[in-house]
Amino acid sequence: MRRDQLSRLATRRQQYTNEHYQRARSLLRPGQPPIPAADCDEQRKFEADLFYQLLASDSDFTAYPLGIRSVSPQPDTIELVVESAQRVKRLLSYLLPCYEPGGEVHGVPGLRIKQWTTRGVELHLAGQRTSAWLTGPHREVWRSAENEGLKHLAELGWKVLWRGSEDWSTEEITFEHQWNTGEWARQFRAGAWSASGLLRRLGAFHTLTAADAVTGYKGLPINGYEGSGPVRWCLDIIHRAGTRRVKQDLIDAITDAEFGLPVSPARHLDAIYPPESMENWIRLEDEARTGLIELRFTTFTYEQLQLSTCDPDYQAIAEAVERRVHSASRRLGPY
């Protein structure tokens, strides 16, 4: 591969992953897409589960989308660089599986810690060819977060499932058969590529937008599709009033033929909310209609934040917004 071509691909890949240039360049491979897809169904489903938990655990205001500074996707694994110790604690509490007696399995069933290194922690699903690296903070931060989780579960009287046996526990197997089979599981697996693909391009929500926050969830089905329809990912790209929106840049990046996903604007927009509130929404879907990505470009003001003055964290959030506004204006400029 020619040097100038490598440079172009690495620079463009950075827009999607927020990696350092040398890291992006070192992971380019001849004959592979610049942002490779997960190389098997198990890895795609695993990354979709990770994406789901990233969204579910994202309740704090973070400097980077979902608290992830950058991603480094490879065909058989992905690295997520977590931004802070606070985000480490919350993320592990949502990922590592445990059992609530008489209740359910919390976390990702079957998830195990494969190894600890100076680089970080590698996670996988027991009995499957899966891999994800969580890095960023020092190794002791990860150890401390796990130990805090163990102590909290002991106080609750819940059972730790990620330690000990490498096999799936009886509780995990029972939970999996009860809740993760049937039509909904089939729908999720068929559309896992969309969540995996978004996870592998998460950096674009930072480099290509001036958003103060990116949040989201797995949405319910909407009208216009057969059966249960596609798996639907609702992503709120939230801007402070007066901040420049860069809507088209993100849409163009996600639909790009070389670096993006195989999606295009959906053929319909089911008005599940008042039309005026959906003015800056766009839905992207694949030709087979198995995955639906719903991008919602919204605006908030400090007055809206002040509606919840009972929350002591809101002053810290407002201050963090101010810092991000200044940072974003330097990256993207004014209107």
Structure description:
With 335 residues, this protein is of the alpha+beta class. The chain has helices at 3-17, 21-26, 41-56, 85-95, 139-156, 170-179, 183-190, 192-199, 204-207, 247-255, 302-305, 314-332, and strands at residues 68-74, 77-82, 98-99, 105-106, 111-116, 120-125, 132-135, 159-160, 213-219, 231-240, 264-265, 281-285, 291-300. The two termini are 39 Å apart.
Q: Determine the strand fraction and express it as a percent band.
A: 15-25%
Distance between the termini: 39 Å
Strand segment count: 13
Structural class of the helices, strands and pairings? alpha+beta
The radius of gyration is: 20 Å
Describe what is shown at a glance:
With 335 residues, this protein is an alpha+beta fold. The protein has helices spanning 3-17, 21-26, 41-56, 85-95, 139-156, 170-179, 183-190, 192-199, 204-207, 247-255, 302-305, 314-332; strands at 68-74, 77-82, 98-99, 105-106, 111-116, 120-125, 132-135, 159-160, 213-219, 231-240, 264-265, 281-285, 291-300.
Main traits of this protein?
335 residues; alpha+beta; five-stranded mixed beta sheet
Secondary structure elements and pairings:
Elements: H1 3-17, H2 21-26, H3 41-56, E1 68-74, E2 77-82, H4 85-95, E3 98-99, E4 105-106, E5 111-116, E6 120-125, E7 132-135, H5 139-156, E8 159-160, H6 170-179, H7 183-190, H8 192-199, H9 204-207, E9 213-219, E10 231-240, H10 247-255, E11 264-265, E12 281-285, E13 291-300, H11 302-305, H12 314-332
Parallel strand pairs: 2-7, 10-13
Antiparallel strand pairs: 1-2, 3-4, 3-8, 5-6, 6-7, 9-10, 11-12, 12-13
